[in-house]
Amino acid sequence: MKLIIVTGQTATGKTNKALELAEKYNGELINCDSRQIYKGLDIITGKDIPKSVESRWSLVERIDDFDIGFYSLPTTNDQRPACQLARPIPIWLYDIVDPQQHFSSFEYAQCATAVIGDILSRKKTPILVGGTGFYLRHLLTDMAQNKVEPDWNLRAELSLLTLNQLQDKLKKIDKDEYEGLNNSEKNNPQRLIRRIEITSAPKDLQTVKQTNNDNYLANLLGLKSLAFEWRFFFKEREELELLIRNRVQNRLDEGAIDEVKKLLDKGYQENDPGMKTIGYQQLIGVVKGKCDLETAVNEWTVRELQYAKRQKTYLKKLERDLYIDNLSAQ
RNA sequence: AGGUCUGUAGUGAAAUGGUAUCAUCGGGGUCUCCAAAACCCUUGUUCCGAGUUCGAAUCUCGGCAGACCUG
């Protein structure tokens, strides 16, 4: 039994590769992109579903508040003319939550574990596709150091504090914890808030014994073993810039602005979790008349490039941490 | 052609004649429940030439470039 993981930078052709592998290994795709989990964010996040097949979404089960289901990717798609399929291929974990809902890597790991188990039980090959390295790490390794769940009320309260106040607060609760942080974390409000959240939770939730990392996911699924096969996709900046520029233009041509208008009309706001996404942030400015299209497009492109760079840093590190053999050349 | 104003990192700006600064971009990184997020580190600049001065981005002269005004 194996799990294939197709990951890498944005705009580098992961989905096509995943579809190719799905044909070869009788596989089903599982989205691993932290933005495509949101309902209604389709064009700008680049979901690989044609507009005409909304009805093909099939809800299979609900895990907590999350809708778990799949789209059947049709054998041909205008978005990928070069890639024709012999049969429709399912893609799971699109459209899990509403853009107003919070969704974390922990929750992603729960959903993905369930889907992987299901696919394997049907004797098919699960193929993870997506560039969210943190989700992959959470899914494939044991990251549980505590059982402290996000407390959004506490986070909202703490987010009103200044950086210094947050630092002081953490120092007061747990001086060693604060001193142990590196410079980047000490100045990072989000990280400080999480540290405060953990250290002010009941003691019995604060530590958890870790399991053996080697077989973490296999153990969760009750399997003897599960092999991982990795494909990484990276590109040099110059090429990436061209790809991203084209992609941004394509998304505009496909109706990106209308998508943003539709979401705003439905009442979604700039700071809803799903809306804090590259592309949406810039186009909201255009729709609200605060920004001209050219400026927005440039910023959108720059943000995508910066994001792609962070992806490379994170995924390279994941690669080192997990001693991964990369098969992307094959 | 004449006049006025302006030339400072790739870009936008700051600097009573006294260590050229900030933002952004670029490069590198951090991150065990917000990760398309948040944060940390970092390369690089006074249009050219001459002069005044202990010392010039700053003052003077000449050149070059741009913007605007007037025939």
Automatic annotation (TrEMBL):
List ligand-binding residues for ATP: G8, Q9, T10, A11, T12, G13, K14, T15
Sorted UniProt keywords: ATP-binding, Magnesium, Nucleotide-binding, Transferase, tRNA processing
The UniProt site entry described as Interaction with substrate tRNA is assigned to: T132, R155
Q: Which GO terms describe its molecular function?
A: ATP binding; tRNA dimethylallyltransferase activity
Cofactor(s) demanded: Mg(2+)
One example of a Gene Ontology biological process annotation: tRNA modification
* Region spans: Interaction with substrate tRNA: 33-36, 190-194
Amino acids binding substrate: T10, A11, T12, G13, K14, T15
Reactions mediated catalytically: adenosine(37) in tRNA + dimethylallyl diphosphate = N(6)-dimethylallyladenosine(37) in tRNA + diphosphate
- E.C. designation(s): 2.5.1.75
Q: How does it assemble?
A: Monomer.
Role summary: Catalyzes the transfer of a dimethylallyl group onto the adenine at position 37 in tRNAs that read codons beginning with uridine, leading to the formation of N6-(dimethylallyl)adenosine (i(6)A).
Question: What family does the entry list?
Answer: Belongs to the IPP transferase family.
HAMAP family registered for this protein in UniProt: IPP_trans
Q: What is this protein called?
A: tRNA dimethylallyltransferase
Organism classification, top ranks?
Answer: Bacteria, Candidatus Roizmaniibacteriota
In the UniProt record, the gene name given for this protein reads: miaA
